[in-house]
Design goal:
Elements lengths: L1 E9 L2 E6 L2 E9 L2 H10 L5 E5 H6 L5 H10 L4 E4 L5 H9 L4 E4 L1 H5 L1 H10 L4 E8 L2 E4 L4 E6 H11 L3 E6 L11 H10 L4 E4 L5 H7 L7 E6 L1 H5 L4 H8 L18
Parallel strand pairs: 1-4, 1-12, 4-5, 5-6, 6-7, 7-10, 10-11, 11-12
Antiparallel strand pairs: 1-2, 2-3, 7-8, 8-9
Helix pairs in contact: 1-3
Length: about 260
Amino acid sequence: MDVIPAIDLLAGRCVRLYQGDYAQSEVFDENPVAVAQQWAAQGATRLHLVDLDGAKAGQPMNQAAITAIRQAINLPIQVGGGLRDRNSVADLLALGVDQVILGTVAVEQPTLVEQLCREFPGQIIIGIDARAGKVATRGWIETSEVEAIPLAQQMAALGAAAVIYTDIYRDGTLQGPNREALRELAEAVQIPVIASGGVSSVTDLLNLLSLEPAGVTGAIVGRALYTGQVSLQEAIRAVGNGRWQDIPPDFGSSALA
């Protein structure tokens, strides 16, 4: 299972929100490029970037930071936030981003999603962010009446490469992922599902391994990495994929060793 570090960008800085609330943001680093290099050096297989300003504004806002990260590391990068038209998606892919994450347009413009899946095969991921099973849109500011599982099934049929599922009530809380919701979603679609929100320990990641046969292929980790509650190196050693040659053999003590 892939352990995917998250870099959430707000005004060019690396931050984390609590339950998606912009009023409850915490700055963890002023230099997201240095953070990206740190995760790369510790063995990450890919990075998850979110343009929080873009998600709120409805258009990409942190291109400079994203470009700098792209130029600084040689890892696949997936980026979401504010991608609501064809040009925004094409421009971001032209910067060298490997995959883009669509959220709001999956609810509001499924025809556009279908067109983008055809034009950029394998590069379109759907971000499904839910409160009590209902999909939130526009930077999590609004909650629709659309339910997560039917939306995931629709997007899979349109050609999406994967689904990232976030339980907003768990995001940034370190309360553990919503395994039941993840299992139901993964069993309902035939494309990979990536878990997001709530990971607080390597134990949480180990618990997600039971969902791998159902199709949960990765887990995005944010706050727990920044607070030190999860060591990326230990997490990779424990649950799955990593670039082992970049991890020193004395990376640190672990109860899992």
